[in-house]
Amino acid sequence: MLGTTTEPLIAAYDLAMLDLDGVVYVGGEAVPGAPEHLGEVRTSGMRVAFVTNNASRPPETVAEHLRDLGVEAGTDDVVTSAQAAARVLAERFGEGARVVLLGAVGLEQALRAEGLEPVEVADDAVAVVTGYGPDVLWRDIMRAAVRVKDGLPWVASNTDYTIPTGYGVAPGHGVLVETLQNFTGVEPVVAGKPQRPLLDETVRRVGGERPLMVGDRLDTDIEGARNAEVDSLLVLTGVTGLSELVAATPAERPTYLAPDLAGLLEAHEAPDSGDDGWTLGGWTGRVDDGRLAVEGEGSAGDWWRVVAEASWEHLDAAGEPADTSGLSVPDA
């Protein structure tokens, strides 16, 4: 079930850990209203961290891109899966450990920042770390795969199966991870979402005692928050739409839900369950004969919350998502 708070999220929590693509920007453009909403979040005193599974770009590059979009961001506000992977390796093997690097400059810099020594694929090493790197050579992947199969410990920055590019959605690092898993029979230690090292590293670097994960993806951002045992806010400015929301498994369900980042500035009330279905803010939703219907009038945010609760109740009972073909999504 969704959570309730009588005060705005910026007061209930002291750190917002924000995913980037689909939350702060989409492609090369800021999400409408995001710079202004985040400005208000900072003015309130809430800490802000930008959390990304992309291990190829150094934090300073990410921060510069955010500033170009009108979003206040410093290098220390950005935490990457490369940094989380480097932390995992440093804690296990210690300063000065030699690590085979298959990835881009962001991962190399993260290793060096933790006192680790990146080495070539044929060099003596205590582990191998992999991350997205468009210039990684196949012969190096082959050599690393053999070494992992022979027992060399393996840390993967993330398992994202796709990555957005200027020419469309392309294969991400998760495709390489799957290839290596199939060949080696080895499961890597994964640093990025939905595993918890990245969010743990974010809290360690940025601070905060009451963190809130803010994301648009159910299977990385929201599931990652659950794995890290922190609350989450799902925003609907990215990849999650009606069909994804009604099919969310218990592990993928957020604490709060809002159309956009303005949800950080608001108190949140969860729908109530009654004989007529789930009700909130003038909306009533229920599933009859497998079809979800929502009636009434109110805000777009409350509509989505009613949809979520009614559809999840049905999914848990019936084992299949509700039919949403008759629904019209209200304007935000």
TrEMBL record:
UniProt keyword list: Hydrolase
One Gene Ontology cellular component: cytoplasm
PANTHER family (UniProt xref): 4-NITROPHENYLPHOSPHATASE-RELATED (PTHR19288), D-GLYCEROL 3-PHOSPHATE PHOSPHATASE (PTHR19288:SF95)
Protein's name according to its UniProt entry: HAD-IIA family hydrolase
Record organism: Nocardioides luti
GO MF assignments: phosphatase activity
Record-linked InterPro entries: HAD-like_sf, HAD-SF_hydro_IIA, HAD_sf
